[in-house]
Amino acid sequence: MKKNILSVYIIEIITFFCIIIFYKVLSPGKYTISMGIYFFILSIIMLIRFGFMKDNNYIKPSVIRIIIAVLMAYFIIIYGLGIITGFSQGLSSFTKDIILNGILYDIVIITSQEIIRHIICKNAQNNKKPIIIYTLLLIFVSILMQASSYSFDSREGIFIFFSVVLIPIVAEHLLCSYINVNVGLAPSVIYRLVITLYVYFLPILPNLGNYLTAVVNIFLPYSAYAFSRRMIKYSEKSEYYGKSLSFKIVTIPTMVILIIIICLISGVLRYKMLAVASDSMIPVFYRGDAIIYDKKGVNKLKKGDVIAFKRDKIIVTHRIMEIKNTNNKQAFITKGDANKNNDEYIVLKEDVVGKVNVVLKYIGYPTIWVREVFE
C-alpha cells in the first residue's frame, strides 16, 4: 500500500510539472487539447498500474438518484429564471469541430480525470493527502484552461473571473472528491458530464448574466454536497429515504416555477405573459417569443414605449410613435418596428392592457402551436 501511495505522489508531481510546462510553451487552444490527451494517457497508465476497483458502496444508487435530482432541480431553476432574464438559441447543428473538440473532448477529459481521482481515492484509503493534492491539481488546470477567455485589466474583470470561474470550479472539484471518497466514481462522472455537456444539446439556453450564473453555479455543487452528505449520514434509514429526498429536491423547485408560470399566464398579478404570433416587431422580438407586460405601466406611457393593446379581440404589441388627445381622451399612434407605415387605426388608452417590459426568446412557440391545432 505504501508503494502505491508513493507512486501516486510521483504521478502527482509529474502532473504538476506537465501543467506548468505545457502552459508556458503552448498556446491556450493547444494547451487545452494537450491536457486532455495527458489525462487520457495518464488514466490508461494508472488503470494498468493499479487496476480498477469497483464500487461496492450500497448507498451508491441512492446518491446517484440524489445527484440526478439536484441536476433536474438545477435545470428547473435556471430555465425558470430564464423566463425573467431571457433565452438565447443553442447550437443549431453539430459540426465536426464541435463533435471532436467539444463533445468528445469533454467526455474524454472528464471521464479520465474522474477515473484517476477514483483510483487515487481507492489506493489512498485513509490517507487524505493524495486526494487533496490531486483535487488542487484539477482546480489549477481547470483555471488555467479558462483563464485566457477572461480579461484581468479591470477590477470588474477580476471579480467576474473569481465569481464565474474560480469559485464554481473549486466547489465542483471539492464536491467530486467528496463523492469519490465516500461513495464512488459514477455519481461524480454523471454530475460533471451533465453540467458540462447540456449546452451542446438543449435548443435554448437561459441568459442569466455573469452574476446570476455565478450564484447558481456555486449553489449547485453545494446543494449536491449537502443532500449527498445527508444521504450518506442517514444511509441506514433505508432506500426509501433516498427516494423520498430525491422527490423533494425536484418537486419543490418545480412547484415554485409552475406557480410563477401560472401567475404570469393567467395575469392574476401585476404582470402577464403573452406569446408573440407575428413578426411585426422584428428585431425587438420575433414570432414564437413571449413578452411580459406590466398592467400598471399604462399610467406612465411615453413615445417609444412598446405597448400591448386590444384590437379586434386579440392582443397586439406595437411601439408608440405619437401621443395625442382624441375627444379629450389620450390616444396613441402605433407601429410595428418591422412595418413601413404607422398602424391605420388609433389606439385609445382604455384599450391598452400594459407596457412590455421583458422579452423571452422562443418561449411562446408551444402556445402558438396549440392555438394553430385548434384553429
What attributes characterize this protein structure?
375 residues; alpha+beta; Umud Fragment, subunit A; 2 domains; two-stranded antiparallel sheet; 10 helices
Radius of gyration: 27 Å
Number of strands: 9
Average pLDDT figure: 84
Share in helix: 55-70%
Low-confidence stretches: none
Order of helices and strands: HHHEHHHHEHHEEEEEEEH
Q: What is the terminal-to-terminal distance?
A: 73 Å
Count of individual domains: 2
Shape: elongated
Structural class based on helices, strands and sheet pairing = alpha+beta
Main β-sheet: number of strands, strand sense, barrel status?
7 strands, antiparallel
Strand order of the largest sheet: 3-4-9-5-6-7-8
Strand content: 5-15%
Number of helical stretches of at least 4 residues = 10
List the helices and strands and how they pair.
Blueprint: H1 2-25, H2 28-50, H3 60-85, E1 87-89, H4 96-124, H5 129-147, H6 155-182, H7 185-201, E2 204-206, H8 209-233, H9 239-266, E3 271-275, E4 290-294, E5 306-311, E6 314-326, E7 329-335, E8 346-348, E9 352-360, H10 365-374
Antiparallel strand pairs: 1-2, 3-4, 4-9, 5-6, 5-9, 6-7, 7-8
Quick recap:
The protein is of the alpha+beta class and 375 residues long. The protein is built from ten helices and nine strands. It is 61% helix and 14% strand.
If you had to describe this structure to a student in words, what would you say it looks like?
The structure is a single chain. The chain is α+β, with helices and mostly antiparallel strands. The chain is 61% helix and 14% strand. A hairpin with a 2-residue loop joins strand 5 (306-311) and strand 6 (314-326). Helix 2 packs across helix 4, helix 3 packs parallel to helix 7 and helix 4 runs antiparallel to helix 7 (185-201). The chain is elongated, with a radius of gyration of 27 Å. The mean pLDDT is 84.
